[in-house]
Every structure is written in structure tokens, then in C-alpha cells.
Write a structure and sequence with these properties.
- The protein has 441 residues and is of the alpha/beta class.
- It contains 19 helices and eleven strands.
- The strands form two sheets. A six-stranded parallel sheet has the order 3-2-1-4-5-6, sandwiched between helices. Strands 8-7-9-10-11 form a five-stranded parallel sheet, sandwiched between helices.
- The N and C termini lie close together (6 Å).
- The N terminus and C terminus are likely disordered.
Length: 441
């Protein structure tokens, strides 16, 4: 998979490599949720102000009319929370940020985001678009100490799994006491929870970050980013420590971000904040270049597999993943042919018939099985293939019982590999099949 050149913005190979290797964090800001048509901050505060006293409503109106950046907005949010209380304010927020059905482009944006193998997704949004955890030692451990995710990890293939993990830095409206919207809330999060800043500092230092719909308006996050950049150095020619998909970034501003903030901007034109399809196009291209199902699905295109197992239901889960990969890669029916055999004799017959037609199988997968005369089913198959000179690569997929000895014997008879885990099988299939018929650019 190479650098994408299908849009006006060239995706940096360093970014794609970091994503594929599980060392990239997605940082999602408010701009990501634009297709959901949520109210902006001023609209949100104006709506909340309808539930406070008349006198405070007038004060809020004056604050919202000011053009002094976030200071007046933070004061307005604090005043509303002081009168309503945190629980009631969170309930009002939840009502304002609840939608009965996601617009198709918002649903697609979430699908693309969660299909990219980030190590984790961090967001300052407290809406309900992304399911995730709020700051805690357990959440930090899940991101910092868990094994680095790779494309063959089962989590990427399980549609019910929350993978990559999502951390909602400013809380979740479903948990009222976690929501951070006011100056006091930010101050408590920053100064009363030292683990929070240590976690983010470590994350920014050790991972590549991709900012999505992020405005860089949170002062404390900017300070943490600056700390990471200072620690790593600002040498000319150094690789960026972060990337950002952003609209309408002037060349001089892009140059400033690159050389003074360590961020490479992937800029697109929004036609005056009217068209954000450029964001989705770039996100889709990153998804196309890194998604595990697409990655594997391309390996299956045009392939012919023979699967030997006396109990084929044992492989239902793996075959379901094959079908998922085909669907994600938009492969038409018939592009992957799987022939099932319930015995060694039937498997050998299928191999022999294909060889006569000069249509050898691209791969044979066999269970180990209980054979006879001291040989397993897999060993009988390998021996029969050797006698008849049937040359298709063979993978043995079985349990890890006596795996070392079974693997030694299988490889001695010509097997390509002996696998006993889901990830091991996928990696072995990738090594055998390599690029699909349409080689990846």
C-alpha cells in the first residue's frame, strides 16, 4: 500500500505507516461532528440559557454578543451551570445533542474513523456519536499499556467490539458528573487530576497524532502539545509529530504549523465553509490505505482456496471474517472460491482435478485432525500431495496442543506454516497470497 495520489492532497507515507503500525492516535474535535447538525457553542449556550432566570438570560445574551473569543463563552457556560447545577445542565445538553437518526454522511464518517487502525481515538466532544470511556486510570492503562494493535488483531474484525478504544476527554453527557464545559471544569480537570496531564503528555510524546476537526482552541492542550514538541526538538527537517486534516489553511499558515508547531496540515478547500466533503475524501483515502478488512480483502481477490476439515462448522467464524473482508473490499460474488473437503481423499481428488485443468488452488488450509497409523489428517494430506506432486501451499490451522512438535512434523512434510491463533492464520495467509491480482499501488 503506497502513498495516495487520488486527491489534491498527497497522504504522507509516514502518517500511513504510523497508522498501520499501531502508533497513531486520532484526536477528534467538534468539526468532526458537523454532518450531525449539532448546534455550535453559541447556539448551544443560547439554548441552555432558555432554562435560567430572566435576569441571567439578559446577561448571557450580552456575553454571547461579545467578540472576545472564548472568554465570554466560558463565562456564560459557568453562569448557566452555577444556576442549573451540573446534573441538570448535563441533562439539557443531552437533550440538545440527541438525534433520532444519524444523517448518512455522519454515519459514514464514523464508519470510516472506526475502520482505521488507530491505537486509540481521543475526543473533546461529549456528545453521543462515539461510544467510549471517560478519563480514569483504567482507561489510560487500556491505551498506554495494551499491546500495540496490528491489522490482524481480532478487535478490528469484531463489529461489536469498541476498537480502537475511545477516550472522551471532556466527559460524556450520559454521565453528568464527567462533563467539562466551564472554566472551572477545565481548571479542575487540569490541576486537580495530575494523572490526566501526565497521560496526555506521554501520549503526545510517544505517538503520532492525527487531528480531525480540531480547532486548537483549548489552551491547555496547546500547552501539552508544545511540551511534547520541546522535548522532541524542533530541528529543521525533522518528521512532523502530528498531522491535521483542516480546511482552507493558507500556505504561510501551513508552513508555520509545520516548522513551529510540528504539525503537517492536510488542507482542503471548503468553498468558504460551505462544503466539507474534502474532509470526508481525505478520511476515506486514509481508510482505503489502512483498513484491515480492505487490506485482507484485497488478498482474497481472484483466489481459489481448498479447506479440509471433517467438522467444517469449526471454521464458521473464520469464514465469516472472509465474507466481511470481501464486503468491505466490494469484491463481487465469485471472486473468492472456497472448496470444502470432509476427508483427505476428497481433498486430494479436488487438488488432482484442479491440477489437470491447470487451475491449481492458491492455498490449502487443513485442520490437524486425528488420523491413523500415527499420522494426523494434515500429515496424511501432505504426504499424499508429495506422492502425487500436487503443488499448492498448505497451512495447518489447529489447536496449540503439542504445537511445537506438530509444527515441526508438518513443516518437514512441506507445510507452509502451522497456526493455532486467529492472528497467526491471517498473517500466514497474507504471506502466502501476497498482493491480490490487482496489485496495490
Amino acid at each position: 500500500m503506497g502513498t495516495s495520489k487520488s486527491s489534491s492532497v498527497e497522504l504522507p507515507e509516514e502518517l500511513l505507516s504510523a497508522i498501520r503500525s499501531g502508533t497513531c492516535i486520532a484526536f477528534v474535535g467538534a468539526g468532526f461532528s458537523i454532518p450531525a447538525n449539532f448546534p455550535n457553542w453559541i447556539e448551544l449556550l443560547n439554548g441552555l440559557s432558555q432554562h435560567v432566570s430572566v435576569g441571567l438570560q439578559k446577561h448571557i445574551k450580552l456575553l454571547l454578543a461579545k467578540k472576545d473569543g472564548s472568554a465570554s463563552l466560558e463565562e456564560a457556560a459557568q453562569a448557566i451551570e452555577d444556576e442549573l447545577g451540573q446534573d441538570k445542565m448535563a441533562k439539557r445538553l443531552k437533550t440538545r445533542l440527541t438525534i433520532s437518526k444519524l444523517p448518512p454522511n455522519m454515519a459514514e464518517r464514523i464508519h470510516l474513523l472506526q475502520g482505521i487502525p488507530f491505537r486509540a481515538i481521543l475526543t473533546t466532544n461529549f456528545d453521543m456519536l462515539l461510544e467510549g470511556e471517560t478519563p480514569s486510570a483504567q482507561a489510560y492503562r487500556k491505551i498506554m499499556r495494551a499491546p500495540r494493535p496490528r491489522w490482524w488483531d481480532e478487535g478490528f474484525w469484531d463489529q461489536k467490539a469498541c476498537f480502537p478504544p475511545v477516550l472522551k476527554l471532556h466527559g460524556d453527557v450520559r454521565k453528568a458528573n464527567t462533563v467539562v464545559l466551564t472554566r472551572r471544569g477545565y481548571r479542575q480537570r487540569l490541576h486537580n487530576d495530575p494523572h490526566f496531564t501526565r497521560f496526555l503528555s506521554a501520549l503526545f510524546t510517544q505517538h503520532t497524532v492525527l487531528y480531525l476537526g480540531f480547532s486548537f482552541s483549548d489552551a491547555y492542550l496547546n500547552e501539552l502539545r508544545s511540551g511534547a514538541l520541546s522535548l522532541l526538538g524542533e530541528a529543521d527537517g525533522a518528521s512532523p509529530i502530528a498531522y491535521a486534516i483542516a480546511n482552507d489553511v493558507p500556505p504561510r499558515s501551513a508552513n508555520h504549523l509545520r516548522h513551529h508547531e510540528g504539525i503537517r496540515a492536510l488542507s482542503y478547500s471548503s468553498n468558504g465553509n460551505k462544503d466539507f466533503s474534502g474532509f470526508d475524501k481525505l478520511l476515506r483515502e486514509i481508510h482505503e490505505a489502512t483498513n484491515p478488512l480492505l487490506h485482507f480483502g484485497r488478498r482474497l481477490k481472484g483466489r481459489r482456496l481448498l479447506w479440509l476439515d471433517e467438522e467444517p462448522q469449526n471454521n464458521a467464524l473464520i469464514e465469516r471474517f472472509f465474507l466481511q473482508a470481501k464486503r468491505e473490499a466490494h469484491l463481487p460474488l465469485g471472486t473468492l472460491q472456497v472448496t470444502r473437503a470432509l476427508s483427505v481423499d476428497k481433498a486430494v481428488a479436488a487438488l488432482h482435478s484442479s491440477a489437470q485443468k491447470n487451475e491449481q488452488f492458491d492455498l490449502v488450509i487443513s485442520h490437524c485432525g486425528q488420523g491413523f497409523k500415527g499420522q494426523t489428517v494434515a500429515e496424511q494430506l501432505l504426504a499424499a500431495m508429495r506422492r502425487r506432486d500436487l503443488r499448492s501451499p498448505v497451512l495447518i490451522f489447529s489447536s496449540n496442543q503439542d504445537a511445537s512438535e506438530r509444527r515441526r512434523r508438518a513443516l518437514a512434510l512441506g507445510a507452509h506454516e502451522y497456526c493455532w491463533s486467529f492472528g497467526g492464520l491471517l498473517r500466514a495467509i497474507e504471506r502466502v497470497l501476497g498482493p491480490g491480482i490487482e496489485h496495490e499501488s
